[in-house]
Amino acid sequence: MTLETLPGDLYHMQELLDDREKEIIARVRGFLESKVQPIANDCWTRAEFPFDLIPAFGELGVAGLAYDECPGEAPSSLLTGFLALEMARVDPSMSTFFGVHTGLAMGSIGRCGSAEQRARWLPAMGRMEKIGAFALTEPGGGSDVALGLKTTARRDGDAWVLNGAKRWIGNGTFADLVVVWARDEEDDKVKGFVVEKGTPGFNATRIENKIALRTVQNADIALEDCRVPEANRLEGATGFRETAAILRRTRSGVAWQAVGVMLAAYGIARDYAVEREQFGRPIAKFQLVQDLLVRMLGNATASLGMVVRLAQLQDDGLYRDEHSALAKAYCTSRMREAVGWARELMAGNGIVLDYDIGRFVADAEALYSYEGTREINTLIVGRAETGHGAFV
Fold it and tell me: Which residue range or ranges hold the Acyl-CoA oxidase/dehydrogenase middle domain (predicted)?
C-alpha cells in the first residue's frame, strides 16, 4: 500500500519513516478516511461513540505494537507519534480514545504490571477486545494531583478497598479495565489498581454538556467500598513517580495530536481558500488570506520538527520530563492559534460543522488543557532550566 504525501508536511518529515512504518500509516489513514471521517461530525454532534468501529480498529493491529505480549514488531516513537497525528488529523476524539486506551491504560499495565498481569490483560487490549481507561484526575484535583490525591486504598485481607471519586475519565463509561490511582492509607504511597467492569462499588456516569471532544465518553467515577483483589494491584506502581513516568510519555503524544489538528486546520482552510470566491476571484489570491495560511503552515511545521526530534530522543533513551513538557506546551499553544486563523479565514462558514473546522476549533480547547496545562508544563521546563521549582 502506497503512502501518499501528508498534506501540509512541507519539509517531508513523513519520509523519515521506514517502509514498514509507511505501510502501517497508509493502512491506518485509509481506515480513518473511509470509516471515521464520514461519521465524525455526526458522532460529535450527538455526543455518541461509534462502538461498531472498535472491531475494525482492532484489526488494524496497531494498539498493541509497543508491548512484548502482543504480536508485531515494536514501533519506533516516530511511528507512534505519526499514528497519533493521523488520528487527530481526522478526529481528535478518536485519537483521544486511542491514546487513553494504548498510552495511559496499556502503558500503566505495561510499565507497572507484573509478567502475569501483562500476560493476563495486554493481549486482549492489543486486539481491542478489552478497552482500557485511566483514572487519576479527581473533582478537586487536577494539576495538584501528585500531592492532593484523595482517593484511598485500604488493604483488607487478600483485597483492597477503594474509596473516592474521579473526574474526566476518558472511556470511563464503557471501559472493561480501569486503572485507578489511589493513596494507600497505611504508607501514604500512590498505587495503581485495575478495576474490572462490573465490580461492585464502581459507578461511572457520563459527563454531559461538553463543548469539546464530544465523541469521547468522559466519566465521573464514584468508588464506594470498591473491593479489588490483590492480584489486580499493579505490582510496580509503588509511588507517584511511576504515574509521572507514564504521563511523561503520553504528554508527548498530545503534542503529536496538536500537530495533527494543525495540519487538519491548514488543509481545510487551504482548500476552502482555493475554492471560495469573493470579489470575482478565489480568496486564495488575496495577500491577507495567504498570510493566514502561511502562519498556520509555519506553526504546524515548527511543531512537527519539535515532536520528530522528541521521538528521536525517546528512542535514544535521552528524553526527560522537560522535553515532553515543552513540546506539549508549545505545540498546543501553536495549535490554538492555527485553528483560530483557519476559522478567521473561513468567516461565518467556520462556525458550522458543514465545513469541519468548527469541530477542530472546539476540540483544540481540550487538547490545550489535558495532560498538563500550559502553565504546569511551563513550570516543569522552568524547574529543569533554573534548578528552582515554582509550583507553589
Answer: 133-226
**In this structure, are residues 359 and 88 in contact, taking their beta carbons and an 8 Å threshold?**
no
CATH number at residue 169: 2.40.110.10
Do 245 and 351 sit in the same domain of this protein?
yes
- What's the domain range around 224? 132-232
Nearest-angstrom CA–CA distance, 2 and 14: 13
pLDDT block averages, 10 residues each, the chain of length 392: 90 96 96 97 97 96 87 87 98 97 95 95 96 95 78 96 97 98 95 97 97 97 98 93 85 96 98 97 98 98 98 93 96 98 96 95 96 91 94 81
281 and 195 fall within a common domain? no
